[in-house]
């Protein structure tokens, strides 16, 4: 049919659309895609350092000194891909190409899932674009350089194989497809455990809507044969088995690493970020905005982008565009609409979960009590749900479900107006995201200049660890994350840690704590001296603990009149 023939050109469309966010690179060479004050320096350190430490993590001695120890790799796929590309095309090009390939992979995987559901490759283009180029991905993951979030491709593929297993003609076929579903789900956990929890939330709406959709032929939007109980059990059992073998094995490894008493990212540290009543950090007015507002999903204009500047500069945007939402609504119109209810309900469930316990419509309009059942289910019923510090991440799973539902709507429109309209719909969705939504476009680019001193430290200091000051950029809540990138050049251990807190040593040592207190005596991350009587003794302790020198960058301090503080 025409759709199948034209659908073969989908790769060409995605190749172009996934490249559009990178247009900022036209500003000049030697530029990374990402905000210069985001997590880019940290991620560059991660991608290069874990090549030597271990793809999944290992004992890290180059940061967190003197509290060195095990640390898991937040982006093993990035380490593998950029490690293969860097010797061929260079550091900058390898990083930028990796971002592009991740956007492309997410787009293709969502397209494959939507094509299976709709049985229409052209209609499925909409789903690929909505998911792969979702505003949260462009704003938070790419611009903020939170690259582990970009490992989105396993989840559409896991759902695709699971649906194929449920619709298999025999138990044997169900087992094969179920094993594939479990492997992709397990890879999702390996590539980013937090993403796994976010997409596992789709289980709730699936359980809610599965019976009606099943009777209609849950696997696709067209009538399908309902499999027998043996096939169903074979599909689910094989999926669970492969998921446990791949993801469970990695979960045990990560748990052992985090349980190590010397771990740089310990279970205790992660546990301290869990949310408990009265959910102070999830209030709509909290300065760091860990939740989305419902109004964010229909926000218009680049001025509506959400900016957070604690530790690093991050951006958030959620509005998928009215075209995407409209197509999803259209999907619910036909008489046989339970399959659309399945995916539309999943999108709504996850969007509601992203707003946190108080279900805010805006900052001013929200419940005063935790009444959001969707978030409460993910927090207290979903395994690992209490590890999600930022509920807004559920917008990722919402965008996948919305994309599939919108693809169903696109097929409905094509039956009414003709298939000529299908190639235009993904263009309309992407145009709205780039031109109208709060998602930044083109994405920010950055150059990172390494001060010459860092390449000649051996002329001034003996071998050994160094302290770097200031730690906060001009007295703000933003940390000098560039120091991670500098470490790749001077190769000396540093005290900086990857968490968004002042390093343990700099807080525990009362001399360095006094220096940080001068830098940061106000704001969310202010540092105080708990024992002034130890300041002089701890000053002498620096050398005893192994530090050979302090590197100071005066422009990093804030100015008061003519003086630097």
Can you give keywords for this protein?
single chain, 565 residues, mainly alpha, two-stranded antiparallel sheet, globular, disordered C terminus
Please describe what this structure looks like.
There is one protein chain. The protein is mainly α. Helix content is 51%, strand content 5%. It contains 23 helices and 10 strands. The protein has helices at residues 2-7, 10-17, 40-53, 76-89, 91-118, 124-132, 135-143, 154-166, 171-191, 193-200, 203-216, 229-259, 267-271, 322-330, 338-353, 373-380, 394-417, 424-435, 452-455, 482-490, 504-508, 510-519, 535-544; strands spanning 32-33, 57-60, 69-72, 306-308, 314-316, 445-446, 466-469, 549-552, 559-560, 563-564. The strands form 5 sheets. It has a two-stranded antiparallel sheet with strand order 1-6. A two-stranded antiparallel ribbon has the order 2-3. Strands 4-5 form a two-stranded antiparallel ribbon. Strand 2 and strand 3 (69-72) form a beta hairpin. The longest helix has 31 residues, at 229-259. The protein is globular. The termini are far apart. Mean pLDDT is 90; it is low at 561-565.
Averaging pLDDT over every residue, what do you get? 90
Count of DSSP H/I helices: 23
> How many DSSP-defined strands?
10
Largest β sheet strand count, sense and barrel closure = 2 strands, antiparallel
Helix content: 40-55%
What is the general shape?
globular
Gyration radius (Cα, Å) is: 25 Å
Strand residue percentage: 5-15%
- Summing up helix and strand content along with how strands pair, one would put the structural category as mainly alpha
Poorly predicted sequence stretches spanning 5 or more consecutive residues: 561-565
How far apart the termini lie comes to 71 Å
């Amino acid at each position: 049919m025409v759709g199948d023939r034209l659908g073969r050109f989908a790769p060409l469309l995605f190749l172009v659309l996934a490249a559009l966010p990178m247009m900022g690179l036209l500003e000049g060479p030697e530029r990374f895609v990402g905000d210069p004050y985001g997590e880019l320096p940290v991620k560059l350190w991660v991608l290069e350092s874990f090549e030597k430490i271990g793809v999944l993590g290992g004992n890290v001695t180059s940061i967190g000194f003197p509290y060195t120890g095990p640390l898991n790799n937040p982006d093993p796929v990035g380490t593998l891909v950029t490690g293969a590309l860097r010797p061929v095309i260079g550091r900058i090009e390898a990083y930028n190409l990796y971002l592009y390939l991740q956007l492309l992979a997410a787009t293709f995987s969502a397209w494959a899932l939507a094509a299976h559901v709709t049985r229409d490759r052209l209609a499925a283009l909409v789903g690929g674009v909505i998911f792969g180029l979702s505003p949260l991905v462009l704003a938070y993951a790419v611009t903020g350089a939170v690259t582990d979030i970009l490992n989105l491709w396993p989840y559409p593929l896991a759902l695709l194989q699971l649906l194929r297993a449920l619709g298999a003609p025999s138990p044997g076929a169900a087992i094969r497809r179920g094993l594939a579903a479990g492997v992709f789900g397990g890879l999702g956990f390996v590539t980013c455990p937090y993403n796994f929890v976010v997409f596992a939330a789709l289980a709730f709406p699936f359980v809610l809507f599965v019976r009606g959709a099943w009777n209609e032929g849950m696997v696709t939007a067209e009538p399908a044969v309902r499999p027998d109980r043996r096939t169903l059990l074979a599909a689910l059992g094989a999926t669970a088995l492969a998921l446990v073998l791949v993801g469970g094995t990695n979960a045990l490894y990560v748990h052992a690493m985090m349980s190590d008493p010397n771990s740089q990212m310990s279970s205790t540290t992660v546990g301290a970020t869990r949310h408990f009543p009265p959910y102070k950090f999830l209030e709509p007015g909290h300065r760091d905005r860990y939740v989305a507002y419902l109004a964010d999903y229909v926000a218009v204009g680049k001025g509506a982008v959400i900016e957070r500047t604690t530790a690093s500069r991050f951006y958030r945007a959620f509005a998928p565009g009215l075209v995407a939402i409209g197509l999803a609504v259209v999907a619910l119109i036909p008489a046989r609409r339970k399959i659309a209810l399945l995916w539309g309900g999943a999108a709504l469930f996850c969007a509601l979960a992203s707003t946190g316990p108080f279900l805010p419509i805006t900052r001013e309009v929200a419940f005063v009590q935790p009444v959001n059942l969707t978030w409460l289910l993910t927090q207290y019923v979903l395994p690992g749900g209490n590890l999600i510090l930022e509920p807004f991440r559920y917008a990722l799973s919402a965008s996948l479900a919305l994309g599939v539902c919108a693809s169903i709507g696109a097929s409905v429109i094509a039956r009414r107006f003709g298939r000529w309209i299908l190639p235009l719909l993904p263009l309309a969705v992407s145009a709205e995201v780039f031109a109208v939504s709060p998602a930044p476009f083109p994405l920010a680019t950055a150059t990172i200049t390494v001060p010459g001193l860092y390449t000649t430290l051996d002329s001034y200091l003996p071998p050994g660890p160094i302290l770097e000051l200031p730690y906060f950029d001009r007295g703000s809540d933003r940390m000098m994350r560039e120091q991670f990138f500098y470490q790749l050049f001077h190769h000396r251990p540093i005290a900086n840690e990857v968490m968004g807190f002042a390093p343990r040593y700099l807080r525990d040592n009362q001399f360095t704590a006094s220096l940080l207190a001068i830098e940061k005596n106000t704001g969310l991350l202010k540092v105080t001296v708990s024992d002034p009587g130890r300041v002089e003794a701890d000053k002498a302790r620096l050398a005893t603990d192994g530090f050979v020198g302090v590197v100071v960058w005066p422009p990093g301090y804030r100015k008061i009149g003519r003086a630097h503080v």
